[in-house]
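Look over both lines:
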Amino acid sequence: WRGDYRKILRTLGIYLDNAVKFSPRSGEVRVRAFTEGGRHVITVTDDGPGIPSDELPQVFHRFYRGARTSDYAGFGLGLAIAKHSMVAAGGDVFADSRIGEGSTFGLGFPAVETVADTEGGEYPG
């Protein structure tokens, strides 16, 4: 991938911060990275309370705070910033959640083809 890696790090930081904030003390936060369909994907999954399906489409909107977030500080900007950062980097964001099972937030960005060099290794081409 070619682009501003800081945008990916900003998005991952927001995802990790939210996952830790909304997970129970004994919960787990899992990070997964893979390549699929010509793009790199990174997901962050938590064991938090989950997000109702009717709220999920709004989580990336500015100032949106779900009904279950009233006990947590914040202005509802983190996920909007994450989305803006990834779109500016040529990528995208997504979320999936189930009540009582936790949430998964992901980001995707286009993979760059690799070209073999004369030493037999690979480099972005």
